[in-house]
Amino acid sequence: MTELPIRTEPLSVGLPLLGDPDEAIRAAEELAPLYARIRDVVPEIEWPVMAPYVKRINALKAEKNAVILAHNYMTPDIFHTVADFAGDSLQLAKEAAKTDANLIIQAGVHFMAETSKILSPEKTVLIPDLRAGCSLAASITGHDVRLLKEKYPGLPVVTYVNTTADVKAESDVCCTSSNAVEIVEKIAAERGVDTVIMVPDEYLAKNVAKQTRVKVIAYHGRCEVHEKFSAEEIRGYRAANPGVVVLAHPECPPDVVEEADFAGSTSGMIAFAKEQKNARVLMLTECSMSDNVAAEAPEVEFIRPCNLCPHMKRITLANILECLETGQYEVKVDARIAVRARESVEAMLRLAPPKSASKTKPLAAAAAE
Ligand code: 13P
Ligand code: SF4
């Protein structure tokens, strides 16, 4: 069997010590309730390195009326100790649209920050590292979508939210992994057609096509993390771990999704994993997800294959702090593109309103626990 890699590097590697060691110990003691959230997945020895960052980040957020919107792939230190809201792409978009904060710090990749800016144009949106991209977003341009529309006139374009604003601007409606089937069916019905164009994720499009009568014309984009999983690996894990429950993200190849017991968005996978009491679970997605769920559900035993998203992993406690201190890097979207991109994001929210709320409690509530 091909063994999938396992994460071995401690999270605090590369995090410089902030302040003097006595200060670090004091911060670690003061923030012990936050450490309790991650103690099952972060060794105690790492906490004094992280705690001074957590303390300063949370103080600066309050001072600047900022909110940290974190994707489910953030590492557990970010996900459980500084994020105000964490969730899948759809939940983050919804949160960005309704937050009262002046400043949004997007702990995720660039397309997520752009989506926040599109939905909250009056707010300042910052991303801690501008290089945090996405292989799907990089696989297609607005020009490519225009060519597709010329080739298939009259067919609606359903665009995965993992795209740049100029691609969204050329589209009829966006979708995420949690609502893709619903969006495809509703836009086809609304336009009275039996076929839609779905970009850019080839595997998501093929997985959706299996669940609907609507014909789906796919593009050739791939997620560089999920395309690595194979059906053969799953069969190997099942043979080695009888009874294991396998969860897959719909960006995985269709034969992988077919081998899985459940397929859904990152938040869908988290909810399903938490229900698997006393079971062994294999999550075929970015590997921080297993750590984040394990921190909250110690009774679930995770088999932890690890495919890291190099883009998501560019976001760290250190650059979140720098971002709050310096105001770098601001994400801007050309106003004309933003207006049209917003229409396709809003069309998604109209056709398939989000059903579940964001995952994390605001830190203020956590501090009062
Ligand atoms: P979700 O919408 O399921 O969170 O997916 C986003 C993503 O980038 C997965 O790779
Ligand atoms: Fe993009 Fe894949 Fe990374 Fe998600 S996991 S941000 S789809 S490259």
Please name the defining characteristics of this protein:
four-stranded parallel β-sheet, globular, single chain, binds iron/sulfur cluster, alpha/beta, 369 residues, 12 strands, 17 helices, 13% strand, binds 1,3-dihydroxyacetonephosphate
Arithmetic mean pLDDT: 92
Radius of gyration: 20 Å
Total beta strands: 12
Q: For the largest beta sheet, what order do the strands appear in spatially?
A: 2-1-3-4
User: What are the distinct ligands in this entry?
Assistant: 1,3-dihydroxyacetonephosphate, iron/sulfur cluster
Q: What percent strand?
A: 5-15%
Number of helices: 17
Which structural class is indicated by helix and strand composition?
alpha/beta
Q: Unreliable runs, pLDDT <50, ≥5 residues? A: 356-369
Share of helix among residues? Answer: 40-55%
> How would the global form be characterised?
globular
| Terminal residue distance | 45 Å
Give the SSE order as H and E letters: HHHEHEHEHEHEHEHEHEHEHEHEHEHHH
Largest sheet: 4 strands, parallel
